[in-house]
Amino acid sequence: MTTIWLDVLTHKHALLLKEVGEYLRRRGFKVFYTARRMSTLTDFLNALSIDAEVVGSHGGRDLRRKLLQSLRRAKELVRVVLEKKPSLAISHGSPEATRVAFGLKIPHICILDSPHAEAVCRLTIPLSSHLLSTWAIPKKRWTPYLIGGCRLRTYRALDPALWIRGVEHQPEEEPLVVVRAEEYFASYMPRDVSAASLKLVKELGELCRRRKARVLVLARTETQAQRLESVAGEGVEVVYELFHGSQVLSRAWVFLGMGGTMTYEASLLGVPTVAFPPRKPTDLELFLAQRGLVSIVYSTSDAISRVESVLSNPEPAFRRQRKRAQKLWSRMSVADFYDKLQKCIDEAVHRSTAAIAEKADSS
């Protein structure tokens, strides 16, 4: 039985690779997971019933510590992989999994929807046998990284479509604004990124008083949560403990995202969505904005204005968003993702087998 290794670095990876792992098991593959220690990730894996061996940890925001932790984790992963003997590795852009797989001559399939994460792209795609990505991202965005024989395959879906099927938008009776704080630890974030979220959370407190709304701010780390709580006014609740994004989003009147994945989730669920990115908009934010599913703003005042616009007249906003989301769903195919994944697996295993055979013949 062929063994496939899946490496999980974030909550999004857990959601995506849980679906991938279940597909692989149905296809007769043996699957094992590895993960790292980061915020509530271990608890989230348990909630998803993912049995993962936890290896290493996140290095935080400091570049030196980030590098050292990555190197330590890669070294520890070698032991695990040599013991499990996988024939193939799959990750959502894990630098450690990619490097270890490459060093041990194990084909690696990189599933990725973040060409803006330049460091991750440079460390993973060139060492991978395949890059699997959504058709919503222009192929030219991947061209600089497609070296060393890596092949690009695209699928007609957005990643969250794999795990939010069956979830419906059922907004609460009272106004609820859900906010996702910025990806504070990401290497592509500006160094002063937290200033924008602090100002936003402070002004959302004033919005609560005007509109009698409740604001739920989803923090990414305990430190970030403490900083946001220090400026949060009455009616603003900062949450750091374990939560399932799509379940929270399904109850929102409007979502305000400073990250990426939950912005995509909210738009697909039919939730009026405002993106307030503390960096350049991602390809997927632009893709969704062009289809009227996301409003991109660049200032706190504009963010507050867009949120207040929805709160003042919610039903038309719900109808418009639901209609646009349904139109996008009609263009997507989750089955196409699995079809393209299977083709990547077949090609990667074939190329690996051929390389082994060629080496044996030459010796």
The separation of the N and C termini measures: 27 Å
The class by helix and strand makeup works out as: alpha/beta
Largest sheet: 7 strands, parallel
Percent of residues in β-strands: 15-25%
CATH superfamily of the largest domain: Glycogen Phosphorylase B
Radius of gyration: 21 Å
* Average pLDDT level: 91
What is the tally of beta strands? Answer: 13
Give start-end ranges of low-pLDDT stretches: none
- How do the SSEs run, as a string of H and E? EHEHEHEHEHEEEHEHEHEHEHEHHH
Count of individual helical segments: 13
CATH architecture of the largest domain: 3-Layer(aba) Sandwich
What topology emerges from the helices and strands here?
Blueprint: E1 3-8, H1 11-26, E2 30-37, H2 41-47, E3 52-57, H3 63-84, E4 88-91, H4 95-103, E5 108-111, H5 118-124, E6 130-134, E7 151-155, E8 176-180, H6 194-211, E9 214-218, H7 222-229, E10 236-239, H8 245-249, E11 254-257, H9 261-269, E12 273-275, H10 283-290, E13 295-296, H11 300-312, H12 314-331, H13 334-362
Parallel strand pairs: 1-2, 1-4, 2-3, 4-5, 5-6, 6-7, 8-9, 8-11, 9-10, 11-12, 12-13
Helix pairs in contact: 3-4, 6-11
